[in-house]
Amino acid sequence: MARLTAMSRIRTLLAAVLAVTLMSGCSSEEGSGGPLPDGQALLRESATAMKDVTSVGFVLATEGTPAGLPVKAMNGELLRNGDAQGDVTAVQAGLTIEAKFVIVGPDLYFNLMGGYQKTDKSMITSILDPSAILDPERGIALMLEQATGAKAEAREDGLVRISASLPGSAVAGLGIKTSQTLQGQVWINEEDKRLSKVKMNLDGGSATLSLSDFNADPTIQAPK
User: Fold this and answer.
1) Could you point out which of 74, 152, 175, 204 has its C-alpha 20 to 30 Å from the C-alpha of 64?
2) CATH assignment at residue 58
3) Count helices and strands in the chain by DSSP H and E runs
4) Phi/psi at 27 (nearest 5 deg)?
5) Whole-angstrom Cα distance, residue 216 to residue 220?
6) Where is the signal peptide, in residue numbers (predicted)?
7) What does the pLDDT look like over 175-185, one tens digit per residue?
């Protein structure tokens, strides 16, 4: 009888340890901020917050060879009116092109080998139009509004990671040319509701757009 009682106590202790372990696992996923917020509601709040953004620093990076995205990497600064400056790596006709660029009004200044040349900005906007990214009707805000099936997954350094389905028409303003609905993830700052990052899964790879320096409003001028 004593042996059975001891075994019963051990089983009870093991069950308690297992329960604590499982609870700890759930707690670590949600973080110390309590239950995760409703993903769809947070996307709507972020769409509203992003409509007030006047400028951002941005980094577009890819993994693999994502279909429908000739831009392989891009980083720089962007104003809501479409003026921008930075560096871009793209593939055209099988050739990899690396260049510095400045967009001011209708003009594009690009530097391939040591000196800026001037042309119409359609040379780059036909691939990726920077003016669309902060446009409430074409860019990030539209993507957040039209995303469906949102589910908050975890907290990461003050950001809430949300998985969602992103319609092809809603990511066109981010330079993604597809008619398919993409599976992706967004990272939203829980305090100011701004989008920090979006990852889009495409055939052959993925593309990730990261944003920073909100409303810094940098001065962007034509190079001399």
Assistant:
1) 152
2) 2.50.20.20
3) 6, 11
4) -65, -40
5) 12
6) 1-29
7) 888 889 999 99
